[in-house]
Specification:
Two copies of one chain form a homodimer.
Chain A: E1 4-11, H1 16-26, E2 33-39, H2 45-62, E3 67-71, H3 75-82, E4 87-90, H4 93-103, H5 120-135, E5 150-154, H6 160-171, E6 175-179, H7 182-187, E7 201-205, H8 208-218, H9 227-243, E8 248-250, H10 256-267
Parallel strand pairs in A: 1-2, 1-3, 3-4, 5-6, 5-7, 7-8
């Protein structure tokens, strides 16, 4: 019977970073099972003590001490967590010392400098780019296309919308998207609306069998979802993108994060927010 | 004149985690300036060598050695990076050894286990939840409300849509949203459509001055955007939410990440994807 360990991701902020890091470290231990618990906003001594009680309770319940992955800036909060009956790996402290030595200066050790709140231009930029993406989804509008940082093209259900929204939310990038449809394949010309924005175009393509599965969930037994039509559309869309010199990615075996980061890397798009 | 250092975030995968971690560490050095460069998908020896060349070039150009923050699973790739003229902080290696000792086993050291691609159910869940959020945005549809994991309510422009999309994309949570409008304030009753889903409701509110600014960008000098109306709407919405026992958050000084993580923490919603 496999032993289940509890892993805690503890942060004085959202916990998003340490949760991702801890999760990917645990994934390296394929044969073991973990219960993963995130404790965000542990930013007072009281919350730190409550966290320690919860962690110690897990040690009793599990019969084995838990793991703590943390990013804690405040040294008092850190040392309270250190008192828990657990293996404690703090990601902040371990690097900040090396950085202080290298940079020959002290860090400010202030909680939550990086992702603040009062960072209004960032918040604003994200909202703006999300609204932009929603207003320019699926060819709804080509107005303001000059404001787009990137315009995704591809057949229906090739993942354009979620990729655009991810780019907007995580990077503050204004991403429009435009579907490629049968008229475009008949003429083998780009939609006229896109003609003046060719340098902004980036294509998505997808394996026809996968597309057939996705479309079948929406419209079972339709021509739209048929494997034959999916093969036709993806083949023509790829031919059109090659003909027009539009770079494209195959989404089939990629997560949305992978799509977004690969695309940013390839196009050298600048992120607008952190 | 402040010296500008180049900081590299190097990963064999998307680089999202190390970029966030590195960025938040650097933010602790407020007086210093950094040029931040992410090098994702460094998953071959050739790419590692190319990265080292680029990093060494920065050392020459900057006149000071760069910083490298990395999460590299493969030890050969790691040691190539180690040869660069830089301070190298690898986040993976430093913790995996402690974990191996604690867990009394070896890690599998396979690149990209955590965020794979062929993790089809995850990809599918995200797409599903994004589509759900889009179809249930701003009260568009209350059909399938029983499928919602959460339903956000609040006045127009209180941040409901981006929060829903963030929950969908990052956590695979099906989040609907429903606006509170003047009819609701006149009657001081929840919209009838929401009556049966009270346990799923969560409110957002916002400082009226901030709301006035946001709305003025959309409709300058309108009644909708006037400070007086913004004060009225937020006050009534908060009163209604209190009366109905709906928990709510003030979005004014929060980033979208903070909103989403606080909300998940408070409601104990389960994430569906990683």
């Amino acid at each position: 019977m496999p032993l289940i360990r509890t892993a805690y991701f503890v942060s004085d902020r959202t916990g998003i970073t340490i949760e991702r890091l801890g999760h990917s470290l645990l994934k390296q231990f394929e044969d073991l099972s973990f219960t993963e618990i995130t404790l965000p906003y542990v930013d007072t001594l009281e919350k730190a003590s409550a966290a320690v009680m919860q962690i110690n309770q897990s040690a009793i319940t599990d019969g084995v001490r838990p793991l703590i992955f943390s990013t804690l800036v405040n040294s008092k909060i850190q040392s309270i967590l250190k008192s828990a009956n657990a293996l404690h790996l703090d990601c902040f402290n371990i690097f900040i010392k090396s950085l202080e030595r290298e940079l020959e200066t002290h860090s400010s050790l202030t909680i939550g400098l990086s992702h603040r709140a009062d960072n209004m231009p960032d918040y604003h930029q994200r909202i703006k780019s999300v609204n932009y993406s929603l207003a320019h989804d699926d060819g709804t509008s080509v107005k303001d296309s000059q404001q787009a940082d990137i315009i995704l093209v591809g057949v229906s259900r090739s993942g354009k919308t979620p990729t655009c929204l991810y780019l907007a939310l995580l990077y503050g990038i204004c991403a429009a998207n435009y579907p490629l449809i049968s008229e475009d394949f008949n003429s083998m010309l780009l939609p006229v609306q896109l003609k003046n924005f060719k340098e902004k175009l980036f294509g998505l393509t997808i394996d026809p069998i996968r597309l057939h599965q996705i479309r079948s969930e929406r419209k079972l037994d339709s021509k739209y979802a048929s494997l034959e039509n999916c093969q036709y559309e993806t083949q023509e869309a790829e031919a059109l993108m090659r003909q027009e010199g539009i770079p494209y990615l195959d989404v089939t075996n990629k997560s949305i994060e992978e799509l977004a980061t690969t695309l940013i890397h390839q196009t050298q798009l600048d992120r607008k927010v952190y």
